[in-house]
Specification:
The structure is a homotetramer of 126-residue chains. The first copy, chain A, is mainly alpha-helical. Helix content of chain A is 63%, strand content 6%. Chain A folds into 2 domains: 66 residues, Arc Repressor Mutant, subunit A (Orthogonal Bundle), CATH 1.10.10.10; 47 residues. Chains in contact: A-B, A-C, B-D, C-D. The structure holds a DNA duplex (15 and 15 nucleotides).
Chain lengths: 126, 126, 126, 126
Amino acid sequence: MAIEFDNNLPIYLQIMNYLKKEIIMGRLKAGDKIPSVRELASELQINPNTVQRTFQELERELIVETRRGLGRYVTSEESKIMEIKKEMASELLDRFIQGMQELGFTSNDIITIVSDTITDVDAKKG
Amino acid sequence: MAIEFDNNLPIYLQIMNYLKKEIIMGRLKAGDKIPSVRELASELQINPNTVQRTFQELERELIVETRRGLGRYVTSEESKIMEIKKEMASELLDRFIQGMQELGFTSNDIITIVSDTITDVDAKKG
Amino acid sequence: MAIEFDNNLPIYLQIMNYLKKEIIMGRLKAGDKIPSVRELASELQINPNTVQRTFQELERELIVETRRGLGRYVTSEESKIMEIKKEMASELLDRFIQGMQELGFTSNDIITIVSDTITDVDAKKG
Amino acid sequence: MAIEFDNNLPIYLQIMNYLKKEIIMGRLKAGDKIPSVRELASELQINPNTVQRTFQELERELIVETRRGLGRYVTSEESKIMEIKKEMASELLDRFIQGMQELGFTSNDIITIVSDTITDVDAKKG
DNA sequence: GTGGTCTAGACCACA
DNA sequence: GTGGTCTAGACCACA
């Protein structure tokens, strides 16, 4: 696992997003044990306290739960996972559409650009 | 003018984006004088040092230029303005498409969602 | 048996309180054999080390005694049991009254609130 | 200001409770600036990070708000303050009444004990 | 000066 | 071994 950190966003937020995506994509499944603080810290080459902060926030969002002495686990509520997927998609969408409109693109512009870009991306991947 | 600041991103970056959009939308035109540090600071309710930093960065990106004793001006190179518009749009697009793909959405999903959302947004605005 | 553990207090303290209450309520009587470390650990779904610690502390408080090779027993001193009942009640009271006073409630407020709440609780239980 | 710390509860929770009480009692008023992390840390002789944690949690509960570079302030919503007063009182009450019932005290016992103790306490204070 | 984040590392409760 | 808390202290954005 390797995350390219963006210097303008707190690391703990970037790891949160990363883990949420892993859960949404099913690479970490509902009920799975997640890496320990120490494991993830050494894997990502960051301080354990930063990972601790990440987990704390994920727990507060009910995405992760701690079992004392045993470690941390992805929530077993599938509905919670669907919920965060919707949340994240919706935030991406809003940010994108609002951003494009603030640059003066019309609705038609936006749809065209997205279609063109995606077709392009797909073509490159073959 | 009121910017809703996002606590997780440096304010100077947020103001930079704001000013770039103003320029792209033509509310600040090529060659226009831009507000002074003090003016903008009091308008946005932030510290002059922060505005200073913003202008510094915009200058580094050749979007703004200082004329000694006269103040700061939007670059008069129209092509520069087009360039940053493309840059910003491209960044928005990449971030959006990559983000959606990381959540497991297919190309078709993405196009559909964008069309639907935009139609929706337009409908609401009447 | 199921104890809802409060994440902010050591488990061994929570089990100590639980067992003290069982003794005070006479569900564990003076002189009774208490469950073994293993039994209680599996019943409460916790680690035997934690139960061990609990018993150690109860022994220190003379509420439980070990008879070599025979197991652990509730003290046979009835007076000891009365004593811990008084202690626990007194601690509950102090914590409650002091807490309410620190929130600005007067003596009259406190008495009224307790009466009202208890009447309420009783009514609900039928 | 001096808090006697109880070793069985995290310090940050104890400071949270302390500050909530100060706000409820009006010694810290709605909209007031609260001490800075460094100030409070040196006053309470604890590490700034522990105070930081305290403030983070109070912010999450909307009791305190940060103004970038200026410091932290008690929420200016009076209703929020009433709300936490009710919450804290309710928790004290529940914990007390449930605790007493678990020790075998009847409703009448409880009311009598509270009245007697309060009368006592008042007598001592003169 | 003020808060936010991060690193380094210790100690404890629990498994 | 695992998480929770705490201390010590650095660096940065912002005022």
